[in-house]
Each structure stands twice: as C-alpha cells, then as structure tokens.
Amino acid sequence: MKKKGSEVRGQGSGVAYATFIAYCIPYVLSILFLFSLVTTSHARIYIDISSPGARKLPVTIITTGPMQSKEIEWIVKSDLDATGVFEMVDPDIPGAEIIVTLDVDMSVGLKVVLSVRDLIENREVLKKRLDASTVIIRPMAHSIADDIYKVATGKDGVFRTKISYLKELASGKKELQYMDWDGFNSKKIISRGLTTSHNWGQDGRYLFYSSERKRQWKIYVLDLDNFTESLLFSSKGLNIVGGTSPDGLISFSSSKDGSSEIYTVNKYGKNLKKLTRAFGIDVSPVFSPDGKTIAFVSDRGGTPQIYVMTSQGKNMRRVTYEGSYNTSPAWSPDGEGIAYTGRSNGKFQIFVVQSDGTDLRQLTFSGNNESPSFSPDGTFLVFDSDRDGKRGIYVMRSNGEAQKKITSNRVKAMTPEWSPYLKK
Amino acid sequence: MKKLVAVCLLIFAVSCTKTYTRPSEEEVKPPKEIQEEVMKVEEEAPEEIAYARDEQIGERDLSPAEVAEVAKMVFSDIHFDYDKYNIRPDARPMLDQVASFMSENGDYNIVIEGHCDERGTNEYNLALGERRAKSTKNYLVSLGVSSPRISTVTFGEEKPLCTDTSETCWQSNRRAHFVVTGRR
Q1: A72 to chain B, minimum CA–CA distance in Å?
Q2: To bridge B111 with a disulfide, which of A245, A262, B48, B179 should be the other Cys (CB 3.0-4.6 Å)?
C-alpha cells in the first residue's frame, strides 16, 4: 500500500505552523536568495497535464536536516498534492518513479540542495543549490515545489504567485490585502477609503482597484515595486475597475454619462474608449487572455447576465441563459472557458461555461460561493464562500475537485483575484 | 547542441543573469560553469503606502450651529424592492418632506446614498445602489429641488445596517439614505 500524501501532510501540520510563526516574524523588507544552478539535465515530461484523466506521478520526498526542514517538506508536498498530478509515496515503500531529496542546512541562514532523480532511468534530472541569508522557509519551499512541478510537467507552477482579496475588519470596513496561494503570509496593502473591486496588471507589478474616498468612486493603481499609489481614472459617478489586457489596457465600468457603461483606458488612464451604450447596468468587464474579447455583466435583457464582445465593443453576444442572476466573469487562461457566479435555487454558486455558451458546469454546491478567479496556469480557481458560516477564501482545482478554505476561520475575507506569474 | 549551450550562456552573461534558466524540454548537457543568480524572494508591504491625494468636490463642512440645526431634521431612509430601483409609493411622504426642507433651507445641499442588501455581486450591487440614489434624486428634482443641490453616491452592499440573513434585515438594507451637507 502506498501512503497517500494527505496523511503525511496531516502529521506535519502542527509543527509546520509553529515554525512558520517563529520564522516569519523577523522578515526584512526584501530578502535575497542566491541560487546556484549545478545541473540542468532534463529529457522528458513525466506527466502530460493537458491530457484528461492522466495518471498520477508517484513521487517520494526525502528530507535531511534539522527539525524545521520537515516544514519545507510539508509545504512542498502540500503544494504538489493540491494539483492532483502527484501521488506522494512513503520513502519506505517502493513504487515511486521520481525521488526528490532536500538536504537542508540551517547553521547559517537557510541552504537547501534540491535533487530530483528519475528512478526509472536512474539518473539525476535536476540538481540545484538554494541559498538564503535568512531563514525564510515558505518562499523557499514554494520555489522548490515550482522546480519539481516544472521537471515533472514541463509547465510553470503557480506556488509563488499571490492572491489579492478583501479582508473585512471588525468595523465592517474592508481592507485590500494579498497573500500566498496557500493563504499564508497575508499583507495589508490598501486601507484608505472603501475598497472593492481590484485586479492585477499582467506583469504582476501593478494592482488596480476602486476606492470610495470622500464620496467619490475612483480607480487607483498601486505600484508594488515602491508601494506608491496613483489615480488612474476619475469622473462623476461610479468607476469600477474590471480587468487588464496583455497590451496594458484597463477595462472598467463608469457612469460618467449617466448609466453604467463599459470603457477602456491605457495604463496612464488616457485614450478613453466607450464600448457599450445601453440603458441598463453594464459592469465587471474582463479581457480574455489574448486581449481580443471582453466578457462583462449586463442587465439589458432584464436580468444580469454574462455577455461577450470584441475589445472594440463589436459583435456583442449573450453567453449565459440558465438562471436569472449571472455575474463576476473570469476567463480561463486558455481563453476557452468563463467562470462566473450564478444564482441557483436561491444560492450563489460557481459555474464554468465555454465562451460560446456551451458545456455549462456547476462547480460548487454548498453555501453561497462567489467571485471566481483562475490561477495563471488554469490549474486552480480561487473564490469566496460562506459554506461554513463565515465568508472566507477557498481554492479548488478548476474542475471543482479538492475545495479547501485557505483563510483562517478568525478572518472574514472575500473577493479574491489570483495574480499572474510574478517576476522573481 | 554545444553551440546552443554556448549561445545560451552568452545571452545569460549579457543579460546580467537576471532570468532563471529553467531546464529546457530537450536534453541539454550540464553547463560547465556554475550559473549564479540573485533572486528577490519576499516583499514586505511597508507600513505606509504613499496614497494618491483626493479632493472633496462641491461640499463644505458644516459649522457647529448648522450641525445642531441639521440634527433636528432627521430624514428616514426610503426602501426598495429586491433588484429594483423604482420609487415605491410608501417612499413618497418622506420624499415630500425632504423636498420641502430643501426649498425652505437654501443654505444646505443633500447627498443621497444608495444601498443594497448583501445578496449578489459587489460590483453589480454598486451599480444598483447608484440607480437607487439616482432615481431618488430624479424624484426630488420632479418635486422642484434644483438638481445641482443633490449629489448621489452608492455604497452597494458595503455599509449594511444589519447583517442577519433574513428578509427583514435585507429590506432595511435596500435603502436610500439622506445626508445634509453645506452648500458652497
């Protein structure tokens, strides 16, 4: 019998959390890793994640080093296990096709030698030395998981990406924060005014958001390199940011001319283009990954539904027909699917539909679930849910499997947006 | 293949070793030199964000005497049906009161806040709250209040009066709220 990854993970979690607390407190402004790439030799893709129903790749992870090194192992296993691509095999049991060894040295800073060995061909496919001057376990572990994922699948992992979200404070006010993809390392970003919609620029450097300050709803942009905020767009009425395109455009809704319509501007807030003209409410415009199409919400048909049009406002077409309330669209990174929030039997649920309106699938069934956003590789969806009584952030695979709350039960959190791949 | 590796190393050297070389999908011989790279790992949000400056438009703060005067004149909220923004008949008496206050007190302006219940998407509810505020404004204008004296703002579902999951609570949150301000 092979030992499942989830069981292994369960044993380490208490230690992991304690050491996380202990080692994350002395964070400095920025910490540098020194990477030495010793060997890069790689011949084949072990798992083709694009083929449906692919088998799981059996992997064994062996860690040597001080007690805290177990936390690194736990995070790596947790990351890999979440994808559903790997099967964690206990070191004492045969059957693994890949063996990962982590030699951890914490005598000065944190040094890890990562080795990935192909047991079928009996050769080393990756060897890498990771060196940090300070003990920063979580980013190091996520980086290792990215490396292993890349070797096994040929694709970039998302374990070093971030999720921005709103945290509700005791006063009822919401604060814009971001955190690691697994819910750790939350950072407060914007607390001024009433912040709601937010989204990432495609290079991960800028965060766009709408804030109400002095009774004016304006769109702001935060440069994450220097934490300086600028005003992107303001006008009379309601201005709510939607999404961003690969060539730097920002889509948003504005009621500057009366009714709420869809507009785009460039990253300087200039070259305003009005894309819709309808009496009803048009909100939540998001670009398809290639930037050519915009999905948005309109009640022009009597109820709020998802529509698509070109990024020039042409060829408008309704996508959703099931149900009387369908909002907050999010494109899958391959550009084929749109996830959205829909009301079904009086509750809000996450659905995915092809952008031509076919192949509708409901992914959540318990409580109210809203605000879906895809990971940049399309493996996961993040969303918020009140299924356990307190609204929080959840991650699931994009087929609806493995739904898991990632924010603490002490925190009320909502409206997550997954970052693109971030510059490292 | 050797050429490819050499070119890769050259590019690497020229670009100041900024990018991490991922293992390529084709077989590549191990590089003879050790490649080193400095990688930024963690950014800490600073205590203070350099916020953009915002200006208040078209309003002034009330003087203490005016605050006392306004406190005597409390307008009740008016309410709306679910996903609707039309003025209900039960809201008309209160709107008549607001309109006569405005015509008798020329020194004041009024802000109408549109609010929604918690159900539904924040963005759609913001737009809906704006519609509620605007239809309230339109009604007051139809009663003779001058349009520039009325401003509107939506708070969507962001400022609920209560947070129970019940129709009574939802109804009290689906409202337009009146705030008296000074006239510039």
Answers
A1: 15
A2: B179
Confidence label for B36 from pLDDT (cuts 50, 70 and 90): very low
Interface ipTM: 0.82
User: Which residues on B lie below 8 Å from A139 (Cβ)?
Assistant: 41-42
Q: Which domains does chain B have, with CATH numbers?
A: 1-40 (no CATH), 64-182 (3.30.1330.60)
Whether residue B111 contacts residue B66, with contact meaning beta carbons closer than 8 Å, is answered with no
CA distance A178 to A254: 26
Query: Does B29 lie at the interface with A, CB-CB under 8 angstroms?
Result: yes
Measured in residues, chain A has a length of: 424
CATH classification number, A5-153, choose in 2.60.120.1440, 3.40.190.10, 3.40.50.10070, 3.30.700.20: 3.40.50.10070
Distance (Å, whole) CA A221 – CA A206? 6
- Domain coordinates in residue numbering, chain A: 5-153, 162-418
Extract the tokens encoding A342.
């829909």
Separation of alpha carbons A154 and A349, rounded Å: 33
pLDDT digits (tens, 9 = 90+) for A86-119: 999 999 998 999 999 999 999 988 889 999 999 9
Residue A336 pLDDT: 95
Neighboring chain A residues of B121 at a CB cutoff of 8 Å: 284, 297, 304, 327-328, 341, 370-371
* Chain A residues near residue B28 by CB distance under 8 angstroms: 40-42
A162-418 classified as CATH 3.40.50.2300: no
Asked if the C-beta of B28 comes within 8 angstroms of chain A's C-beta atoms, the answer is: yes
Does A229 sit within 8 Å of B49, measured CB to CB? Answer: yes
